[in-house]
Amino acid sequence: MSEQIECKVRLTVTKEGRSVYISHLDFMRVLIRALIRANLPLKHSEGFHQRTYLSLVRPLSLGYESGCELCDIVLTKRYDVRTLPALLNPVLPEGVRVVSAVENAVNGRDIIWTSYDIVLEKPEGADETLLEKLRTLWLDPEFSVMKRNKKGKLNAVCVAGYIRSIDLAEKDGDLLLKAVLKDSPDGGLNPSYLLNAAQESLGVTLELVSCRRTGFYNEKGESCL
After folding, report:
1. For residues 188 and 162, what is the distance between their CA atoms, to the nearest angstrom?
2. Cα 114 to chain center, whole Å?
3. CA–CA distance, 36 with 32 (Å, rounded to integer)
4. In which element (H, E) is residue 197 found?
5. Among candidates 32, 57, 27, 8, which has minimal Cα distance to 213?
6. DSSP category for residue 78
């Protein structure tokens, strides 16, 4: 009898609208329920408490939107993965959609950078120098933020090397920040640190309107989608 060949699949999933308030663990449960309802041949762990082989690459912060959440699953047999979006989307909640499914995707450890589109409420009374002050702060070669270590203690950490690019402009009365930030297995920079630093260093409160993850990239800046 021939050995059964498993099928490793990566789903690219959107998370928009009200779904941004689904926590990481609940989001995994939503996806698992949809996979079961679609009658897919899912692989499970062995033992008494069996679990579905499913993982999310770089889990997203609560409240952030995304057009490219990466969900890795394993099927117990070969499958035409091109059919998965049509099978899964009818059984997923509003705001969650599978946009593509591929086999043998890029290893998650090769993802080093993440891009974001961040809309910020322009502070009342801000003058024309605000954008330049923010660029100067965030692109300073010695730019540091306060981060907690494993013991929970706050330390100043230089994160200039965690910023690949920043583009800041005014749009429809708000500020549009396009940023590519480090998001590797050994650490990264959440966009919230940029806003906190503006408050601490410049006394500027930047209220977040929306934050959308738009892409993943390797060390060379090549897309991993």
Report:
1. 7
2. 7
3. 6
4. helix 192-202
5. 57
6. -
